[in-house]
Specification:
Distance between the termini: 34 Å
CATH architecture: 3-Layer(aba) Sandwich
Helix content: 25-40%
Strand content: 25-35%
Number of strands: 10
Largest sheet: 6 strands, mixed
CATH class: Alpha Beta
Radius of gyration: 17 Å
CATH superfamily: P-loop containing nucleotide triphosphate hydrolases
CATH topology: Rossmann fold
Amino acid sequence: MTLIVEDLVAGYGDARVLHGVRLTVGDGEICAILGPNGAGKTTLLRALSGMVKVRGRIALDGAELAGRPPDALARQGVAHVPEGRGTFMPLTVEENLRLGAYVRRDRASVEEDLERVHTYFPVLRTRLKQAAGSLSGGEQQMLAIGRALMLRPRLLLLDEPSLGLAPLVTRELFRIVQAVNAEERTTVVVVEQNAHLALGIAQQAHVLETGRIVLSGTAERIRADEQVAQSYLGYRV
């Protein structure tokens, strides 16, 4: 589903964080959002999922989303995996997964999607009755993404999915995100400090600084940009 963001302004109280952000993510694309800490990347995802007040336009396949609450956006197919995973620690893995489908009414399909999540994350099948808080960091991130997939999202928002994870686990998570995108045609917006990985799976990317997009283009073009290479990739072009 095509995501269109125009003149987006957002913040917290009187503090404005985003200043007129504009971007378009095509149907079934992966879009990487890069930038330094404090640039407004997390606020952008929160704006897209209805967690902060906004001005401007947010449209998903023509449906206007700006100003609507998170539960209404969830019903429109917007799933948000926040930084820090947002897992319900005392609940079991299965309870967490089923919570991801709380707005759905097609209960028979929910069982099918539970099985589908298990194919992406086989380890979760072996942990169904285990408390989510007892999982490793990588397993908790798998659970958080699996819970989001239970919504059967049209738009998947991922905030720093690699945070605190070992490189091997991170690469596997990104492989799965790429597989979900390819197989389900789910549009993905990913905020990620590991620019190498993010640009490796994305079709397009935007660099955000102090609440403004300062550079946009294909992932290949952004990777070849000397400023991005020095600031986020650790080498010179």
